[in-house]
TrEMBL record:
Stored CDD domains: HisKA, PAS, REC
Domain PAS: 55-125, 179-223
GO molecular function, one term: ATP binding
Residue ranges, annotated region (Disordered): 1-31
Residue ranges of domain Histidine kinase in the record: 308-527
Organism whose genome encodes this protein: Persicimonas caeni
Coiled coil: none
Domain Response regulatory: 540-653, 663-780
Name of this chain's protein: Sensor protein FixL
Span of the signal peptide: none
Record's keyword annotation contains Membrane: yes
EC assignment: 2.7.13.3
Keyword Phosphoprotein set for record: yes
Domain PAC: 132-182, 252-304
Length: 780
């Protein structure tokens, strides 16, 4: 035991001294005991005996379970008792601390001044920290310091001054405060406007950059609606953003337009992140708004410059080449040998100049992301034949022959036909330029799994080892004089790489066996349209998706679930597939390479063979209602949940196999609303609209319906009168006022017009039918 003799209080045995203090501060460490009950004047016991042992035990348990360190010291600063939390906070065991001066828990210079504080208080009565709380720096056993909150109180035990200290570790709080200060400093020093808002669009914070950018002070902006910063024609965009945030989605770097206080508009880039409360619920959003007006202005100037250069260079060059071509073709009469030689030189160099101009303009489009692609499904053998024909004369001009090395595999590819031809021309022209005279340039196409490799092989000197790493960089050219004499900008391979990757392909090269180089591009290969016509009885699904990588993931999921799957990135290929096969369901992205998926659905509903084929639409989460009036069975929103996808497709297949066209009776006196609802529902459904009770009664007597969509307020009575006549139909109330509780319990759903979008009406009806079908299937 370290320290002074009085480091621990004397433990008294036997009855307690009547003068002993009983205040909580003095009794904390006393032994349990029983106290006889008081006796009243008439000699009767004043009550049951009071057992103080449980009270002391509870007090001890309370101290032992406290999260704060509790320490008692005597008037000399010597530690008397501590609770278990001290060891967790300071690292010392109780035995190590008892008898030690409290200054062991203090860093310098407070350690040296501690005893002086106590003696000063005892001498002058100046309490200082006693009876109050303050933040201090405390010292752990391992020598590390931490921030703590200290509360000190005084008590008397056996006529002596003693003190009780409660120490709370506030390191985490101080770190959070420091982090908040740093974050606040970052927010205030940011060049970007940083704004927070609640889910209803109310602005809750506004930094200095926001003031500079928009012209509103923080006092003016906070509490206002963020829609005040949005142009009128973009208010729908703001509503969509808030909806996506409520679902927890982060929206990265979308470019839009906002409005300053003075009414002027500016181009901005915005990143919006959801804000969560302690329970991870989304309660608001944080927006980082960057002014990109100067960049947009430069982009417009650059686009105008490129457009002018394109016009001013290409127009005269086209005229020059055309005129030279006419002269060389003999339009002006027979040419002398010498004149023909000069004309040929001029014609060759004009074509070379045009290629250079085209390369320069293409590389600018690639860098700005403005190179447009018109993706189409095309037969592989056709684009290979076109490449052979288009480049044969160029190869011949370099004394080489362009040959097809092997048969071309059957199948389609999904490419921009003109851009694909541009890549082939670049590869073939390079091969021809570097081939020895009278050697062949060989084209080949071979199937590699779901890809096709199209290659161009030459018999030239090959690619220098030191140049290979830079081969596809801009302006890359080997330094050899023989290569420099071949000319060119060094842009062709860089452009070819960018084009190939935009078409979801890969480009590369390898040394060819026997000398020379083989350049190749790998392109996703689509299966022949009418192959595999007699598949097994597995349900066949057509996946229409422009992104072939995503389409292959969908195909794998559906095939693993027992389906046969065909892929189509375009409407044109989908038409051909629908001519060849009968599909149990179609999974359709509403944006395809050559048009809108809605076109395909309309065509399907006009053809007898596909009129009832279930179509599951795939669309972005912010897709508009205009697409929902199509004849579709269900909708899947991106990003796609795999399990949900499988459930929806299975449900669509089941409906297509077992159900006739659903029948819907809409009882509504507003003719315009009936027409709109009819358009929103799938076109393959049988839709009957009536305006009153009499018409509804007649319709129900003549035929059965799957769903009755019912307005309660009708010209000749209440829609409630029909509830006993609908049979097994699902009833959905769609009325201007809420249905009474007892009525709502009798129907499948009750919707209020002012609170319900037509898309929700449609989804409610379709969900009821799907659930009904699932229950019927499970029962049978």
């Amino acid at each position: 035991m370290r320290g002074c003799p009085e480091a621990r209080p004397t433990r008294r045995r036997g009855p307690p001294d009547a003068s002993r203090e009983t205040r909580a501060g003095a009794r904390v460490f006393m032994n349990s005991r029983k106290v006889d009950p008081p006796v009243l004047a008439d000699g009767e016991a004043g009550g049951e005996a009071i057992d103080e042992a449980p009270a002391d035990s509870r007090l001890r348990a309370l101290l032992d379970s406290a999260v704060d360190a509790i320490i008692t010291i005597n008037s000399k600063g010597i530690i008397q008792e501590v609770n278990p939390a001290v060891e967790r906070i300071f690292g010392y065991s109780p035995e190590e601390l008892r008898g030690q001066n409290l200054s062991i828990l203090m860093p310098s210079p407070m350690r040296e001044r501690h005893d002086g504080f106590i003696s000063s208080y005892l001498r002058t009565g100046n309490k200082g920290v006693i009876g109050t709380g303050r933040e201090v720096v405390a010292l752990k056993k391992d020598g590390s310091c931490f921030h703590a909150h200290l509360t000190v109180s005084e008590f008397h035990s056996r006529g002596r001054h003693e003190f009780l200290g409660v120490v709370r570790d506030i390191s985490a709080i101080k770190r959070a405060e420091a982090s908040s200060r740093r974050l606040a400093a970052v927010v205030e020093s940011s060049d970007d406007a940083i704004i927070t808002k609640s889910l209803d669009g109310t602005i809750t914070s506004w930094n200095e950059s926001a003031e500079r950018l928009f012209g509103y002070t923080a006092d003016e902006a906070i509490g206002a609606k963020s829609s005040s910063l949005v142009p009128v024609d973009r208010l729908g965009e703001e509503a969509q953003i808030l909806d996506r945030l409520a679902a927890g989605e982060r929206i990265d770097h979308f470019e839009t337009v906002r409005v300053r206080r003075n009414g002027t508009q500016l181009d901005v880039s915005v990143t919006v992140s959801p804000l969560h409360d302690d329970r991870e619920a989304v309660v608001g959003a944080s927006s980082i708004v960057r002014d990109i007006s100067e960049r947009k202005k430069l982009e417009r100037m650059q686009a105008e410059f490129v457009s002018n250069v394109s016009h001013e260079l290409r127009t005269p060059l086209t005229a020059i080449r055309g005129a030279l071509g006419l002269v060389a073709g003999g339009v002006t009469g027979e040419l002398t040998e010498e004149t023909r030689e000069y004309i040929d030189i001029a014609l060759t160099n004009s074509e070379r100049l045009i290629r250079i101009v085209n390369d320069i303009l293409d590389i600018e489009k690639i860098e700005s992301g403005k190179m447009e692609f018109q993706m189409r499904t095309v037969a592989l053998d056709k684009v290979i034949d076109d490449a052979l024909v288009a480049n044969a004369s160029f190869a011949a001009s370099h004394e080489t022959e362009l040959v097809l090395e092997s048969d071309v595999p059957a199948g389609d590819i999904f490419v921009d036909i003109d851009r694909f031809a541009q890549v082939m021309a670049n590869l073939i022209s390079n091969a021809a330029k570097f081939s020895p005279p009278h050697s062949p340039v060989e084209l080949a196409a071979e199937k590699r799994g779901n890809w096709v490799r199209v290659s161009v092989r030459d018999y030239g000197p090959g690619i220098p080892m030191e140049f290979r790493g830079k081969l596809f960089e801009r302006f890359a050219q080997a330094d050899g004089s023989s290569r420099r004499r071949k000319g060119g900008t060094g842009l062709g391979l860089s452009i070819s790489k960018a084009i190939t990757e935009r078409m979801r392909g890969r480009i590369g090269f390898e040394d060819a066996h026997g000398g020379g180089s083989r350049f190749y591009l790998d392109i996703p290969l689509l299966a022949p349209v009418c192959a595999d016509g007699a598949l097994s009885d597995r349900p066949r699904v057509l996946v229409c998706e422009e992104d072939l990588d995503a389409a292959r993931v969908l195909r794998r999921l559906l095939e693993d679930n027992g389906n046969a799957v065909d892929l189509s990135p375009t409407i044109e290929r989908a038409r051909r597939l629908l001519d060849c096969h009968r599909y149990a369901a179609v999974l359709l992205d509403l944006k395809l390479g050559d048009g809108r998926g809605s076109e395909l659905v309309r065509e399907m509903r006009q053809r007898k063979a596909t009129r009832l084929t279930p179509v599951v639409a795939v669309m972005a989460s912010d897709g508009r209602l205009g697409e929902l009036g199509l004849s579709i069975s269900d909708i899947i929103y991106k990003p796609i949940d795999e399990q949900h996808l499988l459930e929806v497709v299975e449900r669509a297949i089941e409906i297509g196999h077992t159900q006739p066209a659903p029948r819907l009776l809409h009882v509504e006196d507003d003719q315009g609303l009936r027409r709109v609802v009819e358009r929103v529902m799938p076109a393959s459904w049988i839709f009957v609209g009536v305006e009153d009770l009499a018409g509804a009664t007649e319709a129900l007597d003549e035929q059965s319906f799957d769903v009755v969509l019912l307005d309660l307020a009708l010209p000749d009575g209440s829609g409630e009168d029909l509830l006993d006549r609908v049979g097994n139909a699902k009833v959905v109330i769609f009325s201007a006022s809420e249905a009474p509780q007892e009525m709502a319990e009798r129907v499948s759903a009750a919707l209020v017009k002012s609170r319900t979008e037509l898309n929700d009406v449609r989804q409610t009806i379709m969900t009821l039918l799907h659930n009904s079908l699932s229950n019927d299937t499970a029962t049978h």
